[in-house]
Amino acid sequence: MARDMSDKEILKMELEQLKKEVNTPRTPVGVNCADTITYVESRIAEDMLIKGVPDDKNPYKGDKGGCIIT
Known about the structure:
Low-confidence stretches: none
Radius of gyration: 25 Å
Strand content: under 5%
Number of strands: 0
Structural class: mainly alpha
Mean pLDDT: 87
Shape: elongated
Number of helices: 3
């Protein structure tokens, strides 16, 4: 799409986008990181990557063979 546009049209489009973005509320990265850490820690008990999947609900558990690299 940008190949079909002149430089002036591209700059105008970029300017319009920047005008929209100038009113976007911003927060410091540290605040966002703290919020993310709080969110993750509050859900740690339900996280399957940490607590694991119960054997009765794990479709990959069992003697189904595997891949051996030699």
